[in-house]
Amino acid sequence: MFAGQSGRIPAMPLPRSAARPREDRIFVRDGRRHHRRRYSGTEFRIGLLCLGALGAILAWVVWRGGRPEPALFEAPPVGEAGAAVAADRGPLPPQLVGPAWTEGAVSSFGYDDVYEKINGREGYYKQFGFQRLWFVSLSLDPSIVVDIELYDLTTAANALGAALGERPEGTSPQMDDRGLTILHRNALFATRGRFYVRAVGSDESPTITAQLGHLRDRIDAALEGEPLPWAWALFAGELGTDPGSISYIRENAFSFGFARDVYVALLPDDSELFVVSAESRGAADALAERFRDGFVEYGEAIGRSHGVGWSKDRYISTVSGAKSVGTWTIGVRGAPDLPAAEAALQRLEQAVGSLTRSDS
């Protein structure tokens, strides 16, 4: 305290900014107040143009909405039994639908765009020579549907290989000299020549089963078949194996990159007989050697008998081997022991000899 002054300290004036209430620095009390001295005439004219354009668009939408294209309301041409007539049916038979069913539009997909329809599955069919897919959906009502896929797989062997690879477990296909048919629960699998038909229903009701039966009959009547590949005459005819146990592996058989066009028959003891038709005796010898080397890589060599170098798998102790017979390479894979492997391969060699003599 200084002399001559009272005991009270004079109050210091606060800055103007500090004197304002805190909320004045955050909120604008007069939201309509502006700080521009004049408006831009250019901005005003641009705003009018934008409003005019938006108004014109709105008027066009209202006008067009009241005048739709007549073609949008036209139903597609309808054929017999209510089936829609598609412009490009490909090999799909006509009259696929039963009474009261309707057929949707047919679509098709080639090698480069088939993934759009069956993304994730296209690799499976491409390994069987895929050329084209035709798809159509049949419906009784929105909840009762059968989807049909028809594949062109180039050859009858490819079609059979694809169908048998998707065969439901425990089913036995009906086979004749034109192809195979499997009708199981809510699905139909059928081959006719190079075509493979795969149809799946939305449920397992009698209605779906009846439609699948009608579809099977239409396929039988409309699609031309062709004789089964020689492997069925060999395995089913000469050896008497179940036709449903025969398969065709177009590439990478047994995980061997060199193994192509291999026919395999599964035996009751879960071993497999296999056969490949080579171009010459030399090619058959070389292929048999490659099979023997491949089997050894999975185990160890256990000796030779009947001209075969046998090997035993190091993990499951099954026996495998291969040899050449003329222009054929034959073998056995996964036999429970050496005597069983020798007996199975001798039977296969005799069957190949019989088939060769009958063809000559």
Q: For the terminal residues, how far apart are their CA atoms?
A: 135 Å
| Uncertain stretches | 1-6, 73-87
Write down the oligomeric state. Answer: single chain
Number of helical stretches of at least 4 residues: 9
> Structural class per helix/strand content?
alpha+beta
Query: Total number of β-strand segments?
Result: 15
The coarse overall form would be elongated
Explain the overall architecture.
The protein is an alpha+beta fold. The chain folds into 2 domains: 80-222, Protein Transport Mog1p, Chain A, CATH 3.40.1000; 230-359, Protein Transport Mog1p, Chain A, CATH 3.40.1000. The chain is 31% helix and 25% strand. The protein has 9 helices and 15 strands. The chain has helices at residues 16-19, 41-65, 115-118, 122-126, 156-165, 206-222, 230-238, 281-297, 338-359; strands at residues 102-103, 107-109, 132-141, 144-152, 174-176, 179-184, 187-192, 195-201, 246-249, 262-266, 272-277, 299-305, 308-313, 319-325, 328-335. Strands 1, 2, 3, 4, 5, 6, 7 and 8 form an 8-stranded antiparallel β-sheet that branches. A 7-stranded antiparallel β-sheet has the order 9-10-11-15-14-13-12, sandwiched between helices. β12 (299-305) and β13 form a beta hairpin. α7 crosses α9. The chain starts with 15 loop residues before the first helix and ends with a helix.
